[in-house]
Design a protein that fits this description.
Blueprint (H helix, E strand, L loop, with lengths): L1 H23 L12 H17 L7 H8 L7 E5 L7 H4 L7 E5 L7 H12 L6 E6 L7 E3 L15
């Protein structure tokens, strides 16, 4: 029992150290995105439409990686389940540095996930938090849990 408590305490200290580093390191070279939450949601909808239609835009990953060495400025935070069939970057037809993705089994926000979300909002200035869930019957059908005008069937009206 004591070994279990020591291990838990060590992991907690490790977590605090990582959290302190994440807070202390500035997002070098990144400017606050000029994307409003409404525009961010519109971009995600368009990208999802392109994904569904199979008309994904070309990505320039090599040049994007070089640009991102200076810092990141994602326009949206996506809280997603860990389902490997629903990668947010693909589902929303986005490339590197555009989305700050937090993936957690069951979409359960624990202190670590919450810290990641807070980091993206406070330090990277992402202005939209989208909670993405899968429909039990069809994991590739996405259900919007953010503010949207037309929830997918099966989603509660106050979601």
């Amino acid at each position: 029992m004591k070994d279990h408590l020591r291990l838990r305490a060590a992991w907690f200290r490790y977590f605090l150290l990582l959290l302190a580093l994440a807070v202390a390191l500035p997002a070098a070279g990144s400017d606050p995105p000029s994307v409003s939450p409404d525009e961010a949601l519109a971009r995600l909808r368009v990208g999802n439409g392109q994904f569904v239609a199979g008309k994904l835009k070309a990505k320039h990953v090599v040049s994007e990686r070089k640009r991102l060495l200076k810092g990141q400025a994602p326009y949206a935070i996506v809280l997603s389940c860990s389902d490997s069939r629903v990668p947010p970057e693909l589902v929303f037809d986005e490339s590197l540095g555009k989305l700050f993705v937090v993936r957690v089994a069951g979409n359960v926000v624990d202190p670590v996930a919450l810290g990641s979300i807070e980091y993206a909002a406070e330090h990277l200035h992402s202005r939209l938090l989208l909670c993405l869930a899968t429909n039990r019957a069809a994991p590739w059908r996405l259900r919007w849990l953010a503010a949207t005008s037309r929830p997918t069937s099966g989603a509660s009206s106050n979601a």
